[in-house]
Structure formats: structure tokens, C-alpha cells
Write a structure and sequence with these properties.
Immunoglobulin-like, seven-stranded mixed beta sheet, mainly beta, disordered C terminus
Length: about 550
């Protein structure tokens, strides 16, 4: 027996010896050749740093080159995939009013020639920042934030510079457009003013918008044109400040106190509570503040977030001796059930609470800002789960999200979440005590499969498709799916709740599809898709044009 095994092994080696094997084929290589020109004149631009990145390739695949005197460049040895292009040259910006980068796609063995990317002359804002006496202020950070929205979302694009000893600043390489100018002050020591027969007042310089206001809604926009310099001089304001101090009851020493909004006033809104859980903050502007504490427990992955009551009202005097109380978090018990009979491995599921952003105040959003504080739990063998210490935040609603550890559950969806006899799967729910949830999941999730095409009807490989609910599921995170197309421009979204949807396609980037303004802006760019439980619909989604797409 042993001898026969040795003979068999020898035959196997002989059959696969290198001399009898075909020579390995050389891997196909992809490359691009292109040119960078000035958008208005069409003249080539030299010394432009061109970088391409493919984030979804089998291996992260970057490449780069510098344009020559005639504006041309070549990048070789690229993988198949869809690439974003970044162009960098002092004094120029990409020729687009949008924030998408230029894109292109490479098929296996393909080389692209004749790509043309455009830059335009950048704008410039310069000026001087002075104090209330007209004296120059050094070390002031001046920000130029592009005004308006992009794809229905607030535009957070900004550039900044710091004033020198003469109070001067210079913000270069700006995209043409309208900007809000903001002088940010990082000062913690107040100016003390003594008026006869009156108490000492504390005054501090505060961050100020051009032309001289702390109210963003009253700021004046500054128009920046390509290749031009705009001079913006203005002074920063002073205002009265106050002190807040007190204690926090019901929390252990070492807990972290956060007071929402203070970081914009005094540089930090956090403090570690030591013996007696005392806290003290100086130079606080008038306003309403809400506190929270973060309690870390040994051996636990997530920290506990406790909301503090009452809120802190700062008006015209110091607020000393305030006593804040940590409100206990809510508890959620529940069970997950199937809508059909059969065995099920419940330990493959997990539950997560996701805060609903719609109509949430800035203060509430600040309290639930950390993903680490979002309660989550595994499902037990019998389908039960427990979520502990859920932050009891006034005005906050949560959605229950069911996740899985395996792709074999990709067609499952959450059919209902029953709380007190009412289905809250779509609306969400507040947590203000102990709750019990009866959750039903179904393997009959709907499916949308489709192809992304360009304006000529040709498939767009390695692009992105967003499946967005039309109405009733607007607040459900499991109703939104973002998919990247394959080399044939094909995508598939599975496990969708029944309802009405649209499928939107973009060459490369998108904004937060769950923002209400996103659907208002792009909802009419695709036909509605009505889905019933277990149905499968096919669609063709035309790419929404992007100004910086390569030809």
C-alpha cells in the first residue's frame, strides 16, 4: 500500500513538472495618456502634479506623473477599475463649480489616450484683521468658507490662513465663487474692565464674521473671480463673558464631562471630573448649554453616555453652584422572530440603535455625535437581545437596525418593530425608560438590479449607484444602499423593504443620501420603482452628469 502511494505521488509530480507546463502569461497592463489645459484659453499647463487613485481595485492602486512643457503626462502599470484624478498646481484649481474629481475607467488590457483635464486660474483673498482699537491682531485664523450647498447638502469646503505680526493674512488657490470670511479667535484670558462704582467686567474677543458680526446669518458674502485678488479688511468684536461652575451627581470620579457648544467659546467644552465631581468653565458666552458625561467601564467596548439635567442658562451674570444630575439611560429588551417557520441561527444577528437626524436640534446632535456611544448588542440563541444605558436625550428618536455577520442573510429585511402595539419600523421611537420591542425579520426582501449607463447608453463600469426610498421609508437606514458597479456597469441591491424607490447613478462621488435635501435635488432624475415583498426589478440608471468627468 505504501509503495503504491509513493508511485502515485511520483506520477503527480511528473505530470506537473515545469518542463511540461505552459509558460505563465504576462499580466496585462493598463495605462493612460493625457493633457492638462487652462479651461478658458485651452493653453497647456506645465508642472501639474497628476495623481490617480483606484480605491476599489483588488489592491489599492495609485499612480502619478508631472505634466511636461506641452501639458502632457503618461501613467503606466495601472489595474482595471474606476479612478479619480487629482490635479495640483499652485495658482490653479480644477475647472468645476462642484467638488467632484475627474474620473475615468480602465478595462482589463485597456490603455486610454487623449484624456483632457482642465484647470482654471485660482482666486485670492487677502486683508488685515484689527482689534477694537484698530490695532493689528496676530495669530488669528481666518477662514474662507464657500457659501451655499452642493447636491442638497451644506458645503463645508473652506481654506484658511493665520495673520502675521501685522495682522495680515492671505488665502490663495481659491475656487471662484462666493465665500463667507470668518476670523476665529483662540483666546482664553479675558480683558478685565473696571468701571467706577460697578463690578469688574470680563470681556473677550470672539470669533467674528465679515464685515463685523457674530451672527452667521448677517455675514456678507465675498465674490471671488478666477485670477483676481479681493481685499477684505475687518475688525473682531468683544463681548461680555461669564463663569459657570458646579457639581455633577450620580457619576463616578474620572468620568468625562462634555458641555455642548463650549468648545467654540473657551477652546474646550470637556473636563475630567475628579474628587467631588466639581467643574468650572471661564469666559462663557450667554446662551443655553446641555451637558453629558461619558463613563468608561473596564472590560466594555463602548462607553456609557448619560445626559445631564437641567440645561445651563447663561444670561447676564455668572452661574455658580449649579447642581447637575445624570439621568439614567433607558433599557431596551426585545426578541427577534421570523415571519416563517424553520430553524434559524440567531447568534448571526446583531442590533444597533441609530439616531434619526431629521429635525434633530444642534444640541441633541452634538450629544449623540459619537458612534462609540451608540448602543448595540448581539442576539442570543433564543432570539432575545438587550440594549443597556441608551442615552435618554430629549427630542431624540432612534431607529432599530438589524445587521448580520454573514452575507447569507443578504436577502433578509426588518419587516416590523412593534412597540406598545404600534409598528415603529419607519417612524422610529424615543427612549425614555424601559422598552420592549417585538422585531420580525423576513427572508423575502426585495431586489433591484440594474445597469448604469452614460448619455450614449453605454455601460459605465466601476461607477456608483444609490438606491434611495421615495417616501415612507425615508428614516430607515436599511432602505438606503450604495453599490459600486462591476466591469460591465452592473449593480444589485438586495434585502430592501417593500415600498417606492429611485436608483441614482454617479460617476464617482455622492453626498449623504439620507439628507432630506438630497432627494429633493435628485429624486426626479430617475423613475420610481415600486417593490413588493420578494419581488425583483431591473432598471437602467443614467449617470448624473459631472462637470469634471474626463472625455
Amino acid at each position: 500500500m505504501l509503495r503504491s502511494l509513493v508511485i502515485a505521488f511520483s506520477c503527480l509530480v511528473a505530470a506537473t513538472s515545469p518542463s511540461q507546463m505552459d509558460a505563465p502569461k504576462e499580466a496585462q497592463k493598463q495605462s493612460i495618456q493625457g493633457k492638462v489645459v487652462e479651461a478658458k484659453s485651452g493653453q497647456p499647463i506645465r508642472k501639474v502634479y497628476v495623481e490617480v487613485r483606484c480605491m476599489m481595485c483588488a489592491f489599492f492602486s495609485p499612480g502619478s506623473a508631472m505634466t511636461s512643457a506641452d501639458g502632457t503626462f503618461t501613467i503606466e502599470n495601472l489595474q482595471p477599475g474606476r479612478y479619480t484624478v487629482t490635479l495640483e498646481r499652485t495658482g490653479f484649481v480644477q475647472a468645476s463649480s462642484r467638488r467632484e474629481q475627474a474620473t475615468f475607467a480602465l478595462q482589463p488590457g485597456q490603455s486610454l489616450d487623449g484624456l483632457v483635464f482642465k484647470l482654471q486660474a485660482a482666486g485670492l483673498i487677502s486683508g488685515k484683521i484689527v482689534d477694537v482699537d484698530g490695532e493689528p491682531m496676530a495669530h488669528v485664523v481666518v477662514q474662507a468658507a464657500m457659501a451655499g450647498t452642493v447636491r442638497g447638502a451644506e458645503n463645508f469646503r473652506s481654506d484658511s490662513a493665520t495673520t502675521n505680526d501685522l495682522g495680515e493674512y492671505r488665502i490663495a488657490d481659491l475656487r471662484p465663487g462666493k465665500y463667507l470670511i470668518f476670523a476665529q479667535i483662540f483666546q482664553t484670558a479675558p480683558v478685565r474692565v473696571q468701571v467706577k462704582d460697578k463690578p469688574i467686567e470680563r470681556l473677550v474677543y470672539v470669533s467674528t464674521y465679515y464685515p463685523g458680526t457674530v451672527d452667521k446669518s448677517r455675514a456678507t458674502e465675498v465674490a471671488v473671480r478666477a485670477g483676481e485678488e479681493v481685499v477684505v479688511n475687518f475688525g473682531v468684536l468683544m463681548t461680555h463673558t461669564h463663569r459657570i461652575s458646579g457639581t455633577v451627581a450620580g457619576v463616578p470620579n474620572g468620568a468625562i464631562l462634555n458641555i455642548d457648544g463650549l468648545e467654540a467659546v473657551v477652546g474646550t467644552g470637556s473636563a475630567v471630573l475628579r474628587e467631588g465631581s466639581h467643574f468650572r468653565f471661564e469666559n462663557v458666552l450667554p446662551g443655553t448649554y446641555v451637558g453629558e458625561v461619558l463613563v468608561f467601564k473596564p472590560g466594555e467596548e463602548w462607553h456609557q453616555t448619560l445626559v445631564l439635567t437641567p440645561s445651563i442658562e447663561v444670561t447676564e451674570t455668572d452661574v455658580d453652584g449649579i447642581q447637575l444630575q445624570a439621568e439614567p439611560g433607558g433599557q431596551i429588551h426585545g426578541v427577534v422572530r421570523l415571519d416563517t417557520k424553520g430553524k434559524f441561527d440567531w447568534t448571526q444577528l446583531k442590533v444597533d440603535l441609530v439616531p434619526v437626524k431629521e429635525n434633530m436640534s444642534k444640541t441633541v446632535a452634538g450629544i449623540i455625535r459619537s458612534a462609540m456611544s451608540r448602543p448595540r448588542a448581539a442576539v442570543s440563541n433564543d432570539g432575545t437581545f438587550e440594549l443597556k444605558n441608551v442615552p435618554n436625550v430629549p427630542g431624540a428618536n432612534y431607529q432599530l437596525l438589524i445587521g448580520a455577520n454573514s452575507d447569507s442573510f443578504r436577502d433578509y429585511y426588518t419587516k416590523s418593530v412593534i412597540l406598545g402595539g404600534r409598528d415603529v419600523a419607519d417612524s422610529g421611537f424615543a427612549v425614555n425608560g424601559d422598552l420592549y420591542l417585538d422585531v420580525v425579520v423576513s427572508p423575502k426582501g426585495a431586489t433591484i438590479e440594474g445597469t448604469v449607463v452614460d448619455s450614449d447608453g453605454q455601460p459605465v463600469p466601476y461607477s456608483k449607484a444609490a438606491v434611495v426610498p421615495d417616501s415612507e421609508h425615508r428614516f430607515r437606514p436599511d432602505s438606503y444602499q450604495l453599490q459600486r458597479t462591476d466591469e460591465h456597469g452592473h449593480f444589485i441591491a438586495r434585502g430592501l423593504p417593500p415600498g417606492s424607490y429611485v436608483a441614482l447613478a454617479f460617476g464617482e462621488s455622492w453626498d449623504d443620501t439620507q439628507q432630506p435635501e438630497f432627494f429633493k435635488t435628485f429624486g426626479d432624475k430617475s423613475e420610481k420603482i415600486e417593490l413588493e415583498e420578494g419581488t425583483r426589478k431591473s432598471v437602467t440608471a443614467k449617470v448624473i452628469p459631472v462637470e469634471t468627468e474626463a472625455p
